[in-house]
Amino acid sequence: MEIRLNRYIAQAGVCSRRAADGLIAAGGVQLNGEVVRDLGRRVAAGDVVAVEGRAVTPRAEHVYLVLNKPVEVVTTLDDPQRRKTVAAYIPAELGRLVPVGRLDWDTSGLLLLTDDGEMVHALTHPRFGVEKTYRATLRGQLEPAAFARLRDGGIVLDDGAKTRPAKIRVIAQRRAEAVVDISIHEGHYHQVRRMFDAVGHPLVALERVRFGPVALGDLTVGTTRPLTEREVHALQQIRDQVPARRASR
């Protein structure tokens, strides 16, 4: 059975399908020894695929980890500015795992890592809107009007993007700051920080505590754990819905 080249690369755990398209277009992929730039090319049984000079094959079993990312760590495997990256927290024996989406340099918390490129595609594509929950510590007490704006959506960010409705829950209100949980489905650049800036409450700290069905729990900062079978199954259900959603459009 033939499959698209970008899907083959994703199943090999190199990156998501979208990122694979970029590698193909840039001339970084070879099929049977020849550079391929056609995004529609397909791979048949017996074909040899190489990405940036390294032969790759789909993996039979995938690895899924949760990292409690510290602040001041970059969500990439290699940083040209030589800043600390999440690669430093991946056990060497697990091989190459890629982050599922991104957490900003100054944001801590739950980051999924996997070699399942199809999963990365499903969980990060904006069309599928996986819910993400953040615990935000903000300056000042959150007034009802600001709470309503965050909850109801329609906040216009500084680049013109408009937010969708969010789930928001106040955890604590103190004299100088408040702690709230906010759940969103979009993934605009620095979105949560910009939302709170827009309602007059700059953030002091931001931590992601849930990604879809996976919760951070009491995982120590800077450590990882494998996903449970139940968590993997729940994520696989999201992944397996992707073709059906495409077909319905």
The figure for the number of domains is 3
Number of strands: 15
Strand content: 25-35%
CATH architecture descriptor text of the largest domain: 2-Layer Sandwich
Low-confidence stretches: 244-249
Q: Judging from the principal axes of the Cα atoms, what is the shape? A: elongated
Structural class: alpha+beta
CATH class of the largest domain: Alpha Beta
The end-to-end span amounts to 25 Å
* CATH homologous superfamily assignment of the largest domain: Pseudouridine synthase I, catalytic domain, N-terminal subdomain
Classify the helix fraction into a percent range.
10-25%
CATH topology of the largest domain: Alpha-Beta Plaits
Global mean pLDDT: 90
Number of helices: 6
Major sheet summary line: 9 strands, mixed
Characterize the quaternary organization of these chains: single chain
* SSE order, one letter for each helix or strand: EHHEEEEEEEEHEHEEHEEEH
Query: Over the alpha carbons, how many angstroms does the gyration radius reach?
Result: 20 Å
